[in-house]
Design a protein that fits this description.
Blueprint (H helix, E strand, L loop, with lengths): L16 H15 L4 H30 L2
Length: about 70
């Protein structure tokens, strides 16, 4: 399953990407019994996937504006 973690408007909701990742890590460890090292690997994969999607989307936007 692919997913991307993001936050709402920080002016309205006190959420940051770091806080969202910490909540996911805590849930994986405490609620699902995942080892902390495995949770860190999982979160790093989620982070990389989100970053790749961002760059892919931005490349399309830049390409359209270059015309």
């Amino acid at each position: 399953m692919h997913l991307c973690v993001n936050t709402d408007d920080p002016a309205v909701f006190p959420a940051t990407i770091m806080a969202e990742h910490q909540l996911l890590r805590h849930a994986a460890i405490e609620k699902f019994g995942v080892a902390s090292a495995q949770a860190d690997i999982w979160l790093e994969r989620i982070r990389r996937h989100g970053e790749a999607l961002f760059h892919k989307q931005q490349a399309g936007v830049r390409h359209k504006t270059d015309r």
